Amino acid sequence: MKSKYIEEIIVKILMALSLLAVVGFAAGIVYTVFHRGWSCITWEMVSSLPGGGFYIGKEGGFLNAIVGSVYIVAASTFLGLLVSIPVVFYLNVFLKSDSKFAYVARLAYDVLFGIPSIVYGAFAFSLMIWLGLRTSLLGGILVTTLLIIPILIRSMDEVAKTFPRDLLDASYSLGATRLETMGVVLRQIMPGIATATLLSVGRAIGDAAGVMFTAGFSDSIPTSFSQPAATLPLSIFFQLSAPQAEVQNRAYAAALVLTAIVLVISLAGRFIMHRFSKNKI
Amino acid sequence: MFLLTGASLLLVLIMGIGLYMKSAPIFEDHSLWDLLSASEWKPFKNRFGFFPFIMGTVWVTGIALALALPLSLLTAVFLTEYSRAWVKRWFYPALDILAALPSVIYGVWGSLLIVPWISERMAPHFVEFSSGYTVLAGGIVLSVMILPLLVSLFVEIFSTVPQELRDASQALGATRWQTTKKVVIRRSLPGIFAAVVLAVSRALGETIAVLMVCGNLSQIPHSVFDACYPIPALIANNYGEMLSLPLYEAALMFAAMILFVVVLLFNLLSRVILYRLKKS
C-alpha cells in the first residue's frame, strides 16, 4: 500500500480518537458532577437557608444562593435586553451595511466579550469604592449586565445580519417609517433574540469572578438592592474550600443544581434555534 | 440608539483609564520593569513582584494550548472534511455542553477527578510527592474549557475555504488528508493563528477554575508538578484584604490592568484577522 493511504488511515484513527475524547470530556464532566451530587443532595439543601454553624457542617441549605442567582440573572438579563436590542437595530437597520462605525462597534463588542469577568469585577469594585458603595445586589446586577451585553448584542447581531435588506426596502416603499419597519425586523429576528437571551442567562448564572467583588455573599435572601446577595457559583466555591465533608457534600449538591440549570438552558437554546429557524425567510 | 452604541464603545476606554488610574500609586515607588521582573511577593513589606504570577499564567496557558490544539484541530478537520451530517448533529450538543458549563463546575470536576489522578497516578512516576494541585491540573482543566471555542472557530474557518480548491486537489489524486494538510490548513493558517490567540486570551482570564486546582503558592513553577498562582487567581483570592494596605489595592489593580491590556491586544489582533477572512 502506498504511504499516503497508510497516513490517511492513521489520521482517521487519530480523528476518531479526538472526537471521542471531546464527547468523553463532556459526558465525563456531567457524569462526575451528577454522580457525586446525587448522593449528597437532599430536599432540605435546596429549600432552606443556611442555619447556625452552616459552614462547619450544621443544618441548612443554599436557598440563599439559588434565589440570589435568580435575582441577579433575571434583573441583568432584563437590563441587558433593554440596552442591546436598540443597539442591534441601530447597527442593522439605521446604519448602512458597509458603515465604518458599525465595523468599529462590532469589533469593540467582540473585544468586550473577550475581557475576563475578573477584570470587569475588579473595575466595578474600584468604581463602587470610589462612589462609596458597598457590595450589594445592585452592584452584582450592574456588573453582570455589563458582562452579558456584548454577548447579547453580538449573537443577536449575527442573526440580524442575515436579515434580507430587500425586506426593508419593501417596507419603506409601502410608506412605513423606520420605526414601523422595526416591527418587520423584530418578527424575523425573534428566534435570535431568544437564543441570545438563553446564551447570556447561561453565562450570567455561571459567572463567579464578576459577582465575587460586587455582590458579595450573604446567608440571607436580600430584601433590597443595597444588601449583599449570594450566588450559586460562589456558594459552591466557598463550601468546597471548607475542610468538613458535610460542607463539601453540599457544594457537590449545589454543583448538581447549577449544572442541571445550565444544561436545560443550553438544550433549550438549541431546540429554539431548530424550531424557529424554519419560519425564517 | 446612537448614544447607547457609543456608550458601550466608551466602556472599553473607561475601563482602561479607570484601571490605570487605580493602579497609578504603585508606579510612584516601583518601576514597571521592577514590578514585572521581581519575584518577591510580600505586600506587608512593600514588595510587589509579579514574575511568579506571570510565569504561573504562562505555564498553565501553555499546557492548556498544547493539549487543546491538536485535539481541536483533528476534531474540526473531521467535522468539516470527513463527517456526514448526522455525525455533526449528534456531536454539536457535546460542544454546546462544554461551552455552557460554568467555570466553577470545571473547577469541581478538576478537584474531584484530575487533582487526585495527578497526585496518585501520574506524579509518583516522576516526582516524590505532589499534592495534585499543580500547573498540570490547571492546564488540563483549562484545555477542556477552551476546546469548544477552538473547535467552533476552526470549523467556521475551514468552511470558508472554497470547495473548488478541494476538488482540484482531489482530482489530482491527493487523498483527503493530503488535501486537508496541503490545501485546507495551509489556506486557513491566518485564521488558525487568530483562533489560537483568541483561545489563549480566554485562558488567560479564567479565574475560578484555576483558582480551585492550581494550588496558589506564589512561586515560580519549575516542573508541571509544582503549584502555581496565575494572575486572575491572585486578584480573586486577595480582594477581601486588599483595603487594609495602602499599595495592595494598587498592586491588584495593576494585575487586573496587565490582564486587560494583554487580552485587549490579543482580541483586537485576532478579531481583525477573522473579520478579514469572513469578508473574502
In words, what does this structure look like?
The complex is a heterodimer of chains A (281) and B (280). By secondary structure, chain A is an all-alpha fold. Chain A contains eleven helices and no strands. The model of chain A has no long low-confidence stretch (mean pLDDT 85). Chain B is an all-alpha fold and 280 residues long. Chain B is 75% helix and 1% strand. Chain B is built from 13 helices and two strands, in the order αααββαααααααααα. Chain B has helices at residues 2-23, 25-29, 32-37, 51-82, 85-100, 103-122, 135-158, 163-171, 176-187, 189-205, 208-213, 231-238, 246-279; strands at residues 41-42, 47-48. Chain B has a two-stranded antiparallel ribbon with strand order 1-2. In chain B, a hairpin with a 4-residue loop joins β1 (41-42) and β2. In chain B, α1 packs across α13 (246-279) and α7 packs antiparallel against α10. Chain B is globular and about 70 Å long. The mean pLDDT of chain B is 87. The interface between A and B is large, with 84 and 79 residues.
Features:
heterodimer; A: 281 residues; mainly alpha; globular; B: 280 residues; two-stranded antiparallel ribbon; 13 helices; 1% strand
- The string of secondary-structure elements of chain A, in order, is HHHHHHHHHHH
Percent helix range of chain B: over 70%
Any low-confidence stretches of chain B, pLDDT <50, length ≥5? Answer: none
List the strand order in the largest sheet of chain B.
1-2
Q: Which structural category fits the helices and strands of chain A?
A: mainly alpha
Spatial separation of the terminal alpha carbons of chain A: 51 Å
Total helical elements of chain A: 11
Percent strand of chain A equals under 5%
